[in-house]
Amino acid sequence: MNVSGIYLVALLCAALLVSxxxxxxxxxxxxxTITPVNxxxxxxxxxxxxxxxxxxxxxxxxxxxxTTGTSVLTADLNWGNPSNSxxxxxxxxxxxxxPCYDSADGVLxxxxxxxxxxxxxxASGLWKFKVYGNSVSGTQAYNFLTN
Length: 147
Description:
This protein is mainly β.
């Protein structure tokens, strides 16, 4: 990992920790910029990719194929109940981001919304999104979308 890569990872982790996100394991340095989003403005035509439910200790997987030339991807996990804790881990073809928790955007609101970008484009291929029930009382419904 070069000096600029180390700086980027350190800066990303510092920014995420200040805002309450835990990005605990970036396995590789894919050079992504991760921006927590608390004002999501997606086009009206985008609908939740998945509506699901999760319980304590359960893992759900979601998948999205990124095509060549894509430079930005938004991942939105919304369960709307801050008394339950879910996490989102993003596994790109060239690295892992997360796990990220509720207050990623500085607001404890039962939602993790991240915008992932990289100059030169994101890694094309299958991206995997791991939703994990960290601390869930009963069953928690959620919406998950990517665009």
